Structure formats: structure tokens, C-alpha cells
Amino acid sequence: MGEQNGLVIEARDLTKVFRDFWHRPRVCAVNGIDLEIKQGEIFGLLGPNGSGKSTTIKMILGLLYPTSGHLAVLGKSPRDVAVKAKIGFMPEESYLYKYLTAVEILNFYAALYGLSGRIKQERVKNLIIQVGLDAARNRPIGEFSKGMARRVGLAQCLLNDPDLILLDEPTSGLDPIACREVKDLLLSLARRGKTILICSHHLADMQDICDRVAILLNGNICAQGAVKELLVNPDTLRLSLQSPSREQLTAILTYIEQETGQRPLVDHSGRTLESVFIETVTRRPAAP
Amino acid sequence: MGVFMPSVMIIRLKQFVALAGLAVTDLFRQPATFILVLANIACTILVPLSVSHQLGQQSHLAVDSSLAFEFVFGLLLTGYAACSTLHDECRSGTILIVFSKPIGRLTFFLAKFTAVALLLAFFVFCSGVATLLAERLAPQNFEFDPLGLKLLMASPFLSFIPAGLLNYRSHRSFVPPALFLFALVLSVLVLILSSFDREGHRVVIGSMMDWRLLPACLLEGIALLLLAAIAISLSTRLAAPATVSILLVLLFAGLISDYLAELLQGIPLSGSVLQAILPDIQNFWPADKLAGGGVISGRMLGHAALYAAAYSSGVLCLGYTAFRNKQF
Prior knowledge:
The complex is a heterodimer.
Chain A: E1 7-19, E2 25-38, E3 42-46, H1 53-60, E4 68-73, E5 87-90, H2 102-112, H3 117-130, H4 146-157, E6 164-168, H5 176-191, E7 195-199, H6 203-209, E8 212-217, E9 220-226, H7 227-231, H8 246-260, H9 273-283
Helix pairs in contact in A: 2-3
Chain B: H1 6-28, H2 31-46, H3 58-92, H4 94-98, H5 105-137, H6 146-170, H7 175-193, H8 213-234, H9 240-255, H10 257-263, H11 270-277, H12 287-291, H13 298-324
Helix pairs in contact in B: 1-5, 2-3, 2-5, 2-7, 3-5, 3-8, 3-9, 5-7, 5-8, 6-7, 8-9, 8-13, 10-11
């Protein structure tokens, strides 16, 4: 934890320039960004491909070194190995050893955290159940679908009960139900005081769970703030009514038109496709 | 100054064991490992049976070719294994998850070297067994060893059929059990043949094998370990073709380092600098010593091991320096 200011991640004027063989600047992936992420917050990094999201996450993990600027993770340098004991990371691709089973790979990563004995066994067992892979626990990961491999990726990320969780496209490849489960899991982790940083293109998912977001473009932060503040449009107002009668509605519309000079837009409040899908799939009995 | 707590040391040891264990498991399941180990055994045992070796001094030729095969296949295996375990891990991205855990780069680097060293230890064992068999099975006065050949022909079936069945039942890789069973079957074959003469009569156990070959193979194994240190250091930056090419150049340059130093005699210090940089492979070539009826003594092995340890430590330090600041 950043003892001085309560910040879990603090970046000031963070810049990363990739250089060629002759050390000439080739591309500026991150260009002087400022970030402050507090404990218990779910923070989203949005942006198109090549905007610098993954580079930022790699710098936070100490896998890439900043060209200039200041970066502190849990109050320390990201290159400090000890800091990583409190971090969980799920990369965009499932970079897993394909010949190992789900249990074997989690046991391996648990050993890298120094876990052993009963603690290791219980944590691996619980996580396998939590990510819904109990039935496939002894199958090699090479035989897994993309979504199942993502679940293993999520499980390894939570092995050490981390304070800071970094997720690169966490819902990519997951079906809507698994996607909802992951989002619920992340929300429950945030309620337990975990700090979560997510990179994603799935804007609806980010809108569902993030407290604050930053939008990156060409290595620069174009917009940053609380999701609710960014989404609100102060020039329009939505009025919701619970099934008024036709006469009542006509009277209300006439009144509004007389007072404001504008004809209000009337439609039924819609459901999201996600809610329809989940309701439909969960209502159907499972195939024998 | 940080206090180095015993618990921290235990955690680092666990991490090291986990990393080295997974790396060696991965190396043993690679088809290329299977092919190289098997090719070495096949060439070592079968080439002496060919016509070209039946011109006299069959046993001597068998030993020379066996030791040469150990060097060549060992070098290929070393280069391939080092790049497979380190360079390919960086390229495939699996290293991203490993380094998101509290793993020091030195722990990771040394664990990878240990894995390659363990694979080489297995290779040298197989090579030693094959060399003993090659010397025993080499035809003498155009006469083959019928008992030995029959047992040799049965050995692949005795090892690969059970390994295949295990693969069928467990869905796990065929390679590791096949390799270990083959090494076991060949070791048993050595023990059996060491108790029978070429006519099939019982003799004193061990009297029918030239056990001097084992320390000779071990000496070459130490040289391969030295080359493994170079290979793992190169693989921090280079892929397998470049690494193996450089190893081949170093091997041959090391074999003629005296001659190269003589060529540079006119330039001050250049000869001694060249000899210090190049691995002194001549120290590890045992065939000439064996040809004169000599043995590879413990003292000679000790000197070679000390030289290899010092040279490897220096090379590993350079390799770690290249790896320490590598970005992923």
C-alpha cells in the first residue's frame, strides 16, 4: 500500500519510448500519463489497439521499464520483487503451459508464491471451484477452449489473495454467463478492499463494474474520471414512469410541450441483450 | 542492509525447485530431445557394426566414434534445450505470468541452467551406456556378438511398447517414459552382457566390459556442461539456430585453440587472451588417452571439473547480466 498518500498506483509523467537496435526512438507507446488509483477502486483503462494500455500494465508489473517519469506500485518501485507478492496479473492471452492440467499449473504458480502443504491444496481447490473448472481439473490445458483457459488465467491471478489485481481483457473469450460471473467476482473483490485495474475493449463490461476510467489514445490520456460523471449528459433529462394510462400520458406530454416548447421522446425502457441471454439460458433445463 | 531471513531462503528454494522441475519436465517431453538422445544411442551402437569399422581395431574405432557422437549430439541437444527452455519461454509469453510472481531473475536464470544440466546428465548416462555396448558389440575378426545383438534388437520393444501403453492409458506424453525405460533396458543389457563372453559362457560379473569408458564419457559430459553455460547465456538474446551455430564455432575453435594462439604470436597478449576466452575443449577429449591404454583418472576429472566450473561461472555471470535488464 502506498503508505504516504493511500495510493496503490501512482504514475507521474510516465513515458515509454521503444527504441530500435541503434537506440533511436522508434515509437512512443506511452506519453507522459498521470494516473492515481486508490485502494478498493476498480479502474478501467480504455483505448483502441496500440493506445498503450498493455504497455502501461507491463510497466506497472516491472516487465517494461519506463523511459522517464515516476511510477510507484503499492508505494514501491515496480521492479521490487517483493511487491509482486501482493499483485495478481491476468494477461490478455492465456500464456499457460499447455501440457499441464489445471491443477498442476495452479500448484506450480502457488509454489512460486512460496505456498505449500494444506494451504496450497485448499487454495487451489477453492479457486478451481470458484472459476467453474472442477469437472475439467485434470485435463491438460491444451485441450481447453479459450474461455476455459481464461478461467485458469483468472484463478492463477487470485492464488496469492492479491491486494492489487491487474487484468488485461478479462472477459475476452468468455460466454455471457461466465462474463457475468467474472464481473460479480470482481465486484465482490473490490468490496473486500482489493484494487483492480482492468484493460478492456468491452465498453459495456467496463461500464458495469468500473468506478473510474481513463481513455488512452496514442499513448496519451484523453479523458479520465468517474464513470457516472463521464456518462451523464447534463443537457438532457430522462423521466421514467410506471405504466401510466394513455390519458395521463397525453396530459403529461401536453404539459411538458407547453412549458418547454419541446416534444418529449417517448419509448419503453429496454433490457440489455446480456440480461435477456442470461435469463433465457438459465431458465432452460440443462441438456441430459 | 536487508536481513536475509531463513524463511525467505526457503521460499526462494521452493521457487527454484518448482522452476527447475517444470523446465526439466518440459525438456524431457520435447520430441527433439527424444530424437537427439535416440539418434546418439543408435549412431553410437550401430555405426561400429558397419563395414567401414571392420578393417581392424574395431573396438578402438568404436570408442572413438562413440565419443565423437557424444560431443556432436550433446552439443546439438545443449543448444536446443537452452533455447527451448529460455528463449522460447520469452517468445511464447509464458514468462510474463512467471515474472508477475515474486520471482527474482537470478533464481529463474539459474533454474533454467539447472534444468539443462539435468537433461545433459541423463544424456551423458545414456551415452556412457551406449558407448559400453558399442565397444562390446563391435565385431571382432568379422565375427558379431550374437547374444548381444539379439538382446539389443529386443530392447526398443521392451521400452517403447510399455511407454506406448502408458501414453494410451494416461494421455500423457510418450517421450519421458520411453526415454527412461530405454535407458533402463540398455543399463540392464550392459549388466547382462558384462557377465557373458561372446560365445555366451558365464564369466565373472563385469569382466566383459571396458569400464574405462565411463569416466571418459563423464569428461565429455563436463565439457557439455560448460557449453550449456554458454548456450543458456546466448539464449537470453538469441534463438536456437544462432545459438547452435555459435556453439559449433566455439567447439571447433576450442579444439584448435593452441594452433590459433600460434597464429597470433606476433600480436602481444593476443594469443593468451584468445586462449583465456575460448573454452579449452582439448582438455575434454579423452580418446587419445584411452588409445594408449590409459585411464581417465579422478585427478584429471577433478581438474577438468574445476576449469569447467570457473569458466561456466564467468559465462553465467555475463549471461545473467544480459538477462537482468531484459524487457518483455
